[in-house]
Amino acid sequence: MGATMKITLRRKLELKSQSVYLKLHRKVLRNDIKGYLNSEFDFPNEIIAGRIKDYLRNVGIYDSNYGLTATYRDAKETGLIKEPDEGKYQIWHTQGDLLFGDRFFCFKRMKPDSYKSNNIKKSELKLTGVFHSLPVKGGAEQDLEFTIEEMGKWDEKKEPSEIDCTWIWNNTDNSEFKFSGFLKINGTDKKWNGAIDETKSLDLNISLVPHIPNILPGWNSETERYGMKMDDIKDEGTYLYFEYTGSRPCAGYLSCHYEKVPVEPYNLEEAKAWRDKLIHMELEKEYKHPSDFAGSTVSINQKDGFARYIEQLDMDMPKIEQYSHLTQELATEK
Fold it and tell me: Which of 3, 10, 92, 135 would bridge with 15, disulfide CB 3.0–4.6 Å?
């Protein structure tokens, strides 16, 4: 694929909220461990040094040979270590969302205060695994990734939040998300007011493959081009460069903007009409002698956007007589 294709999809996202009991591992900044891994601390006492190595091995930072495990190879630079935590949290999550399904999006530790018994019930959520949190202003870096091991025991509903979600595709290989808006929180926090940092992006590991039929209907995975109907083309640049930039409606999204999407004719009939359009554009630009016409048409057939149809196009070459009205006008001008 040539130029980088970009698709920007915007929608509203409802996040349900409740307070729950969680057991989790969250990333914590440990400058002491970072310093040790970078040989900034010296422990001449062999017993203490040995205990530190054993501790790092027991928590999974070192392997059995006291080398960094694959999980913690970046800890030497970042100092971020996964540590266990347990307690009461307010969480924000999707439930039955068409894109995200049931997924954690954010959590905040709450004070273990008393509960009204009529608001408490056993949690029906079964969300466990590794999640990436929304980048909330005032939140700690450690909250951007966390692993839920157990949840439940009680469940107290909170007011849901509606935020803005922007999904950005880079070609059909990968994508990133940006969010904006506010999370409605229980209580007050001077540092953490629920405002989402819209400048930061997240890779939520969403596979693009099942969404291509909706976002790019008619996408050809072999040619990596979008089969486009001529009725949808609004400018000559799309015909000339086989690239589309513009906005089109897309089910489930408030807006869908395409940039530099590689395109090709929708079918063979339209490929012939597209080629005819290019021939007209060339003849309107300059006069061509009949002896040059065939070579010029072959060059058009060989454009990348016609790769899917080149054999059929070569077998059905137009004659210059079909454009006699243009060639005669240009010949007279000459």
Answer: 92
Pick from 52-56, 171-175, 183-187, 264-268: least confident = 183-187
Residue type, 220: N
Q: Is 159 exposed, middle or buried (0-12, 13-18, 19+ CB in 10 A)?
A: exposed
Instruction: Report the run of H or E that residue 178 belongs to, with start and end.
Output: strand 174-180
Comparing C-alpha atoms, which of 154, 109, 156, 100 is closest to residue 131?
100
Cβ pair 184, 161 in contact under 8 A: yes
Q: What is the pTM of this model?
A: 0.79
**Residue closest to 170 by CA, chosen among 307, 1, 304:** 1
Band (pLDDT 50/70/90 cuts) for residue 190 is: low
